[in-house]
Structures are given as structure tokens and as C-alpha cells.
Write a structure and sequence with these properties.
Largest sheet: none
Mean pLDDT: 85
Low-confidence stretches: none
Number of strands: 0
Order of helices and strands: HHHH
Number of helices: 4
Shape: elongated
Oligomer: single chain
Structural class: mainly alpha
Length: 72
């Protein structure tokens, strides 16, 4: 198997906690939904929770900043 293929899912290459990754993704999606409905404070909480679980989630950082800019 070629481990450098761009189409290979990350879970086949790297050992990681899939439950944790799913939780992060769930909080991220909840944040996006709240942000889309204009509920900026709820979105910020969801993005912060996702970042507590995965500090390197770039999209959460981007959307958290956007939510906090537009909330105030």
C-alpha cells in the first residue's frame, strides 16, 4: 500500500482516537450551524469546546474569530 497517496484516509495511516476526532468534528459542525443561524455566542462556545479537544483545528480558530468579531 502506498502511504503517500493523497486519497488515503488519515485514519488508515495514523493511529488516533476516532471517538475524540468525531467529538471535535461534532462540536465544529454545531458551531457552524449556530454561526449560520446568527447565534454567535453559541457558535463561539462550540468552537471553543472543539479547540479544547483539538487545539490545532484551524477552521475552528478561523470561525471562532469571525463569531467573536461579529458578536460584539
Amino acid at each position: 500500500m502506498d502511504y503517500f497517496a493523497v486519497s488515503l484516509p488519515d485514519f488508515l495511516v495514523f493511529e488516533e482516537d476516532r471517538t475524540l476526532a468525531d467529538q471535535v468534528h461534532c462540536h465544529y459542525l454545531m458551531g457552524l450551524a449556530c454561526f449560520g443561524y446568527g447565534r454567535k455566542e453559541e457558535a463561539s462556545r462550540a468552537f471553543r469546546r472543539a479547540l479544547e479537544l483539538d487545539n490545532s483545528h484551524l477552521n475552528c480558530r478561523i470561525y471562532l474569530e469571525m463569531a467573536e468579531e461579529t458578536a460584539g
